[in-house]
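Summary for the lay section of the report: proteins are chains of building blocks that fold into shapes. Here we show the chain for Selenocysteine-specific elongation factor and then a coded description of the shape we predicted for it.
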Amino acid sequence: MADSSLPKTLNFNVGVLGHVDSGKTSLARALSSTASTAAFDKNPQSKERGITLDLGFSAFTVPLPEQLKESCGEKQYDSLQFTLVDCPGHASLIRTIIGEGISQERMSARERERKRGKGKAIAQFPTSLIFTLSFCAQIIDLMMLVVDVVKGMQTQTAECLLIGQLTCSRMIVILNKTDLLPTDKRQAAIDKMTKRMHKTLENTRFKDCPIIAVAAKPGGPEAPETDEPHGITELIDLLKAQAFLPRRDPSGSLLMAVDHCFSIRGQGTVITGTVLQGSISVNDTVEIPALKVTRKVKSVQMFRKPVPSAMQGDRVGVCVTQFDPKLLERGVVCTPGSLQILYAAIISIQKIEYYRGALASRAKFHITVGHETVMARISFFNRVLPGKENGDCSPISQEQNANSFSFDWEFHHLDEYLTGQAEGGRGEPQQWALLEFERPVTCPPLCLVIGSRLDSDIHGNACRLAFHGKLLEGIEDKNYTETALPRLKISKDKQKEGAVERVTDDYTVIGRNLFKKETNLQLFVGLKVTLSTGETGSIEGGFGQSGKIKIRIPEGLKEETKQLLSSSSKKKGKGGAKNESSKSEETKPDSQPVTIHLNFKRYIYDPHKKMVQS
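The coded shape description reads as follows.
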């Protein structure tokens, strides 16, 4: 058992995000006293290129601030540990997350070497943005947005701000590299950039967030280590003031994001990562879904200190029984059987306002879900409310129905995402989407989903994050098109128009031009039609072999209709069959004035392709 007299440390996770070369890693290094096995650009490619290619983790500890002593209550913590998550900001890393459609953790070592040898633009850990999103969504307590004070907001700065808006509630803006400003104009430039940042943030959830100026590495990366950073003490004081007691839930299934893996001879394999949900203890059995194996937990450490267990939000090293660490560069560890393997999914969806492109059904997007990014085809739909089935979907707002879904509901297919306001002017109309993944993905229920166009020009200034939502229904059946999709009642409105060719009797007409010759007319027998003169009838069946139909008018034709059709027939008869002009006359508006209108809907996933009328 753990000794209760040992000092207890409260862990607080801080995400460090920003544009490439804004000084994130230098800032983390200046703040940190204890580095993990994946910190400060230890990746060889990071050192070579001078940018962060991987998430880096480091930490520093301070005495517990007074405001936390009160809020901790019975939980007697002695100190506060800030765990810093240094996230990559280089655009090409985000773009190459897919790695030609193969996730990095599923590649063999030989495949990775082959790709590097050919000079492919594939980073060693191309899933960095996925982990950034996963961390922010589940355990990042506060975000530090690092901005180059000379350059201001840049493309990836804006995308990091967007990620923060989707996943985090608190933020500090760091104006870095103040040492590059002329001494006599430094404060004026800092004040000007501070004002600009407040203006940028005024319509976001981070309005009035604190902004602080620092020089994390005076003189740049090549400067001697003897040059002391500026403003770091003040930043630590600000972080202490902004810290709060994070909500941590040890219950539920374990989900741990793994970012590093190595073996220790005679002990086992060490997995380092962050507990995203649940808890982990010595002697637990955990599953590694990517390898389809389970392993027993032999020991747990937090920044080199042995602990009996860890819970949501904790940064840990877990020693398990031996396996080849090269097989798990990145991935997840979980409670056995707790993760779904999905072939398709239903999600709630909301367009990101800064995305300029259209969101069209049947288009493909890069979908970040759980800890993977995969291509998927998307189809949009909204709900048909009871009593409003006649094409009026009366969309409700996101706020009214944010994350609910039922296979019992009636939905209406959308050719593209609807923008504008719902009834009452309360937000955008609630919409859902079906995602059909190009390969199966492993993810927990109700996780964050983000759709992007990562193949966009990385040098452009357009936002590549297109939409976000929550996974509401996962479809685990590989044959989902035959089993699950028919349960999804999404209809598409259809309209057909033809013309009355002739009258058979007072209750029957022959129609043409509604269907093609090869159409199976039996599917339409019994459907109601309306004549342009007001009569309603139903399709009795086909007439001949050219796609014509016989229509029964139960109430009989009006006298005016019969006269109109009789007059039309006489016009057609003039000149006889040899008169070529009569053929063209049939297509004129006044030669066939009585039109036939057929309105119906079809459930797009109905295997029987039945037509339905309300």
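Put simply, here is one thing we learned. The mean pLDDT is 81.
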